[in-house]
Amino acid sequence: MNEQHRWLERPVESGRAAGFGVYLHVPFCSHRCGYCDFATHVADPTQVDAVMARYVAALHRDVDRVLAAGPAGDGSRAWPEVTSLFVGGGTPTLLPADDLAGIVASVTEHTAVTPDAEITVEANPETVTPAMFTALADAGVTRVSMGAQSFVPHVLTTLERGHGADRPLAAVAEARAAGIQQVSLDLIYGTPGESMDDWQTSLATALATDVDHLSAYALSIHTNTPFGRARATGAIPDVDDDAAADRFDLAGDVLGGAGFDHYEVSNWARSPASRSRHNVLYWRHGDYLAFGVGAHGHLDGHRWWNPRSIDAWMAAVEQGRDPVASREDLDVDERRLERLLLGLRLRDGMHPHDVPPLDPMALEDAMAHDLVETACGRVRATDRGWYLLDETVRRLA
After folding, report:
1. How confident is the model at residue 228 (pLDDT cuts 50, 70, 90)?
2. Residue 374 — pLDDT band, cuts 50, 70, 90?
3. For residue 137, what are the domain limits?
């Protein structure tokens, strides 16, 4: 073995040692929020049931095709055991409960899944019911990630959310009662018009739900979204970077004071067992299959992604074609950069055997600028390096 490539060929926590995931994308939304740039689809109300049924059938067909073919493409080898399954969107919980449970079963019944596999479904508070949570729990779903975004009415209005401030509280209780083992809430900070008191209210309310996990993301305004176009005309202000930094610091103080572990730049967990295993797989540079509109997959440096057009994706699957829109094979330097950019998002940093070769002077420079630190051979970002992650990786690479 080339010792220079040990981090790729014999990883301890990263790469193939991180586990094996499956991601399934459900693009449907009742409304596309102004800040969203994900692959979503708002169907004509008179056609939505038919489109959803067609999409679910296509998902089953593509999952069956890929799982049966195996990594060699001819069925001669089985995929690794699945350690995490994530159904994201869009709003997966717009689907009928039986269809959503069937999507999960399409994976769990046709490939090896570890007994302790994490199975997550994303949900919006206004689209879930006690019956749906029960159906998901019965299907083996262990985790729900719920998009609350804020608990302040005027912030929810700006974000164009379809639920009130109280609905996430009830939805969390319903998920608990149905037997969902882990519940996570997503929050957004830095929305135009949001005050520091507003953000404090959202954090305090989220903590009062007694959830296991919280994600807090700074609002990003992308040019191809309604928010981006509104920013261009001056209808809304750009995100205030200093205000966003203050919100980030407050989240760390409030959630840390409540006993949450800030284990990744944007994520907090009550305990190591409450961390999002599927997302940790991403940050550990691991391997995962991807199904559905706009989904991205990765296997050992080979990356691919599906078209964002629901019609193009469904047509390809129905015609028996591979629906992939594009592929790329990352060279060693690209994988090295990606390993650093992803791995340093985690507070634990990277195991010494998983760190790609670093120039000693570059490492010394990054440490001198208080961007990284080392402990027991692990390389990890400092608090400053976390917030300036692009700069941290630029100096190291």
Report:
1. confident
2. very high
3. 12-283
d(CA 38, CA 27): 8
The three-class DSSP label of residue 264 is strand
pTM score, whole prediction: 0.96
CATH number, domain of 21, equals 3.20.20.70
Q: pLDDT at residue 1 above 60?
A: no
Q: Does a structural domain hold residue 316?
A: no
Per the listing, tokens 């719920």 go with 146
What contacts 337, CB < 8 A, 6 or more positions away? 393, 397
The answer to whether residue 397 sits within a structural domain is no
Q: How far apart are alpha carbons 280 and 347 in whole angstroms?
A: 11
Does the structure show a pLDDT above 80 at 3?
Answer: no
**Mapping DSSP to helix (H, G, I), strand (E, B) and coil, where does residue 250 land?**
helix
b/e burial code for range 250-273 (CB count within 10 A of at least 16 → b): bbbebbeeeebbbbbbbbbbbeee
How many angstroms separate the Cα of 313 from the Cα of each of 37, 125, 316, 368?
Answer: 18, 28, 5, 49
366 contacts 395 by C-beta, under 8 angstroms: yes
Q: What single-letter amino acid sits at 67?
A: L
- The confidence score (pLDDT) of residue 2 equals 66
d(CA 184, CA 120): 10
Above pLDDT 70, what percent of the chain? Answer: 99
**Residue 220 placed within a domain:** yes
End-to-end Cα separation, the chain, in angstroms: 23
Q: Please, are residues 14 and 7 in contact by the beta-carbon 8 Å criterion?
A: yes
The per-residue DSSP string of 223-249 comes to TTSHHHHHHHHTSSPPP-HHHHHHHHH
The tokens 């319903």 sit on which residue? 174
Is 164 inside a domain boundary?
A: yes
Pull the structure tokens for residue 100: 């959503």
pLDDT per position as a tens digit, 46-102: 899 999 999 999 999 999 999 999 999 999 999 999 999 999 999 999 999 999 999
Round to whole Å and give the CA distance between 20 and 113. Answer: 10
Q: DSSP of 289-319, one letter per residue?
A: EEESTT-EEEETTEEEE--S-HHHHHHHHHT
Q: Would you tell me how many other CB atoms lie within 10 Å of the CB of residue 384?
A: 13
DSSP state letters, 95-110: S-HHHHHHHHHHHHTT
